[in-house]
Specification:
Blueprint: H1 3-12, H2 16-25, H3 37-44, H4 47-54, H5 59-71, E1 80-81, H6 82-86, H7 94-106, E2 110-113, E3 127-130, H8 134-138, H9 149-155, H10 157-172, H11 183-193, H12 197-204, H13 211-216, E4 223-225, H14 244-250, E5 255-256, E6 261-263, H15 266-272, E7 291-294, H16 295-322, E8 325-326, H17 335-345, H18 349-361, E9 366-368, E10 373-375, H19 387-400, H20 442-460, E11 466-469, H21 472-482, H22 487-503, E12 507-508, E13 511-512, H23 514-520, H24 524-534, E14 543-545, E15 549-551, H25 558-567, E16 569-571, E17 578-580, H26 583-591, H27 596-605, H28 613-624, E18 636-639, H29 643-651, E19 661-664, E20 667-670, H30 674-683, H31 723-736, H32 753-769, E21 771-778, E22 784-795, E23 798-803, E24 808-813, E25 817-826
Antiparallel strand pairs: 1-3, 2-3, 4-6, 5-6, 7-11, 8-10, 9-10, 12-13, 14-15, 15-17, 16-17, 18-20, 19-20, 21-22, 21-25, 22-23, 23-24
Length: 828
């Protein structure tokens, strides 16, 4: 029976509660909905869905599943039971194996099967088979073990050519190995020679000194890098000082794959593990050794980080509003622009890049497509919100974003870079706000890291007034146990995520803060309440001093900070920022449209002390000397001796688009180019003469207005579909179910999800067994044609087939295949 149909039958027999649990654990199975159990089984057996399900399994579940995969054969229907798996998993019990198999069955990753021929059977002895796509998802090295000698002979032609000679040399040298005449016989001889830990131990008794240490490197993975891996090594011409690599190659204990890689065969790997597939099996996660800090220190550090981040975001928005961040042609913000931003914020360049990324993913700055620069959107709502709501805005955007801010500045070819980044040049680094910092899995990784932090904090059970300190190593160790299939993703992002969480106050002094625990539990209202209670209110005053400085005694309100930055330069870092007044800073405020009296009034209203005389003199004196010369911009000018005509033109609504300004009784300036200005004037019935000069004007490119900011809302990765969707799906499934006891299976509709998966299952099985199939194919004219072919490979929506009658190979699109049936004849 087809594996998909067997799974369909099992799913149909489940209770509604069991199906609800399945949909909660694998929500993609009913998104979108399925018409019947056959389609549900087909989707549950699909490669993408199985891959997602495996990413949620913990280490013991994965170990049992991989062992089951190695013990079974889905092509022949050879199944396995818990007692069979127990023999291959060191430290396991029948009860624990049964529990793991039951959990995997509940997830529709395995299903019940008949006992193999000759195996003991009974009502309490259950046999299982995994879903058919598991082999493709797990890969060629399940449990970190290599392929068998017979498979290596079949798939590695150089080894197949060498293996008979290798076995002959071993036999001539006195090794207890049977001679062989064909590559497959030689492979079986090597397999039998290394089949037990005792036989391998006898082989290694005469090995060079460092051989055991070398083999220990293959403890978790079967493939390794070795220079000149395909060099010939012979036991008949072996020197006394032979190296461990040559010694292992000469005996076939390592098999060369290419010029630089070798593989440890399956039987050798199992024997090195003492005859077990799984050498270390534990049902409980490792418990890390954690330090501790005081709860007060944790709270103060978290609140300080939040206040500092909000202050820096406010300053960054002011700097971007004054001078947008220009991007490179290749994308992202270059080093020069980032250094300018870092200097303005008094930060390191990496920290400035992370802050810019945070502002961008929160929508506080946006890329203007016309100017290719990052600008602040007009009427930004964030600036008017209370401080705790500003913080929640940033946290929500960070949780939901598919960008990893901490990748800024890291090498493009570094470990933390995404696979797509390897196209970059050697030595280059990831620019801020560039595509290289995109990580689609970032939201899932962040959410899981916060959950692990909460788990470890609960398990630590610190004393009153204390909090456990969590580091990247402890979090990664737990992540590798709880989700081993995602370990590489965690390792590349975990340090950056923890640093970003600390910047947002989710972590304080190395410990998960109260608001961090609330966010991890998806309770943002509770986090807002805690923050509103403990975060100090923003100050609305400064201390003016006689040395032309203003000292902020705490965190200032954003509007006060923005006004101060227009007339003074910020110095230092931290809450007690110093703002220094100078001739250039006061002139900057005057250029922005302020005057001496408005600046003095503003400082008087927001100063806890009287305005020092030196500061008042500085402002008044600079203002008195300001604007004696005026500089403006114009694209063209209009000159006429008729002042009355110019006044009429200035008041004419038809000329409003020109932006006319009178700078002299007989001269107007326009913001439009000379020819455009002349065109408008002619449309008003005038006859201007155009004078083209090198100084005809400078066109200023204006940034187009961006849409109003949209407040980001965090939507956690869905862990379970809504109850209404589940109820509706169950109703559909039950209504389509055949009556109990009905025999056979209904035919699959061509083009349906079930038909597609059944066809792929048949093709993949035929490829492994080298079996002919009969395909019903639609040709280019739309006609249906039945063909008998041998499938060779399936990839990318296409199947490569061999036509025995025409003795040719060709490629067919899977969507053109109506149905596939296995032929009875097997190729010899």
């Amino acid at each position: 029976m087809s594996l998909i149909r067997a799974l369909s039958k099992e799913l149909q027999a489940r209770s509604d509660d069991s199906l609800r649990a399945l949909f909660a654990a694998r929500p993609d199975l009913i998104s979108p909905g399925v018409p019947d159990f056959a389609a549900l089984a087909a989707r549950a057996s699909g490669r993408v869905s199985v891959q997602r399900a495996l990413e949620r399994l913990n280490r013991p579940q994965m170990q049992v599943l991989e062992t089951l995969h190695l013990c079974t054969n889905t092509d022949t229907g050879h199944s396995a039971s818990a007692p069979m798996l127990k023999k291959l998993i060191n430290g396991s019990t029948l009860a624990s194996i049964d529990k793991m198999l039951h959990s995997l069955q509940e997830l529709a990753l395995v299903h019940r099967a008949e006992a193999p021929h000759g195996a003991p059977a009974g009502p309490k002895l259950r046999y299982y088979l995994p879903v058919g796509s598991l082999k493709d998802v797990i890969g060629i090295y399940p449990a970190g073990l290599g392929r068998s000698y017979t498979e290596l002979v079949r798939l590695q032609p150089p080894f197949a050519q060498r293996v008979v000679q290798l076995v002959t040399e071993l036999h001539l040298s006195g090794a207890a190995i049977s001679p062989a005449t064909t590559p497959m016989e030689a492979a079986l001889s090597l397999q039998h020679w290394t089949a037990t830990p005792e036989s391998l131990r006898r082989i290694l008794d005469s090995a060079p000194e460092r051989t055991t240490a070398l083999l220990a490197r293959f403890g978790n993975w079967a493939m390794g890098a070795v220079p000149q891996a395909q060099r010939r090594a012979s036991v008949l011409h072996e020197a006394a000082d032979v190296g461990p690599v040559d010694w292992l190659l000469a005996r076939g204990l390592l098999v060369p794959l290419d010029a630089a890689h070798v593989e440890l065969p399956h039987s050798v790997g199992v024997s090195l593990r003492g005859g077990f597939v799984i050498e270390k099996y534990a049902l409980t996660p490792p418990v890390p050794r954690l330090g501790s800090t005081s709860a007060a220190l944790r709270r103060n550090a978290a609140l300080g980080a939040i206040a500092e981040t909000l202050r820096l975001v406010g300053e960054l928005l002011y700097l971007v509003r004054e001078q947008p961040l220009v991007t490179l042609r290749s994308g992202g913000v270059g080093v020069r622009e980032l250094k300018r931003l870092a200097d303005g914020l008094r930060l390191e360049m990496h920290d400035a890049g992370v802050l810019a990324e945070l502002c961008a993913l929160a929508g506080l700055i946006r890329l203007d497509v016309d100017s290719s620069a990052w600008v602040q959107p007009p009427q930004l709502e964030w600036l008017t919100l209370p401080r705790q709501e500003q913080w929640l805005w940033l946290v929500n955007a960070w949780l939901a974003s598919e960008r990893a801010p901490s990748l800024v500045g890291q090498p493009v070819n570094g470990q933390a870079a995404t696979p797509a980044l390897h196209r970059g040049t050697a030595g280059s680094s990831i620019n801020a706000l560039s595509a290289e910092a995109q990580r689609p899995d970032a939201p899932v990784v962040r959410k899981r890291i916060l959950e692990i932090l909460a788990e470890l904090t609960r398990e630590a059970g610190a004393a009153d007034g204390q909090a456990p300190v969590l580091d990247a190593a402890a979090v990664l160790e737990r992540a590798e146990w709880s989700q081993p299939r995602m370990a590489r993703r965690f390792s590349s992002l975990i340090s950056g995520v923890l640093a970003e969480a600390e910047m947002l106050g989710l972590i304080g002094s190395g410990a998960l803060s109260q608001i961090g625990a609330a966010i991890a539990a998806e309770q943002p209202d509770e986090a807002l309440g805690i923050l509103g209670e403990h975060l100090p209110a923003a100050l609305n005053h400064v201390l003016l001093q006689a040395d032309l400085t203003a000292v902020a005694p705490g965190y200032l309100a954003p509007d006060l900070t923005e006004k101060l930055l227009t007339m003074a330069d910020a110095e230092g870092q931290g809450p007690a920022t110093i703002y220094r007044f100078s001739v250039s800073s006061v002139r900057r405020a005057l250029d922005a449209g302020q005057d001496a009296q408005s600046m003095l009034d503003f400082l008087g209203a927001h100063s806890a002390t009287a305005i020092p005389q030196p500061l008042a003199y500085l402002i008044e004196d600079t203002a008195a000397r300001h604007a004696r010369l005026r500089v403006g911009s114009a694209a063209s000018f209009i000159q006429s001796d008729d002042e009355t005509a110019l006044l009429e033109l200035l008041s004419n609504p038809g000329a409003a688009a020109l932006g006319l300004v009178r700078i002299a009784p007989t001269v107007l300036v326009s913001r439009s180019a000379p020819r455009e200005t002349a065109h408008v004037l002619r449309s008003l019935g005038l006859s201007p003469a155009v004078e083209e000069t090198d100084a005809a004007g400078i066109r200023l490119r204006r940034t187009t207005a961006l849409p109003g900011s949209v407040r980001p809302v965090y939507s956690a990765p869905r862990t379970a579909p809504p109850d209404a969707d589940v109820d509706a799906q169950l109703a559909v499934l039950r209504s389509q179910s055949p009556p109990a006891g009905a025999a056979g299976h209904p035919a699959s509709a061509p083009g349906s999800e079930e038909a597609t998966q059944l066809g792929l299952e048949t093709l993949q099985k035929a490829i492994r067994l080298k079996q002919r199939v009969v395909m019903n194919v639609v040709d280019s004219l739309g006609n249906s044609v039945r063909e008998t072919v041998v499938p060779v490979a399936v990839s990318g929506g296409r199947v490569r087939v061999f036509d025995p009658e025409k003795e040719t190979e060709r490629v067919l699109s899977i969507h053109r295949i109506i149905d596939v049936e296995a032929a009875e004849e097997l190729l010899q």
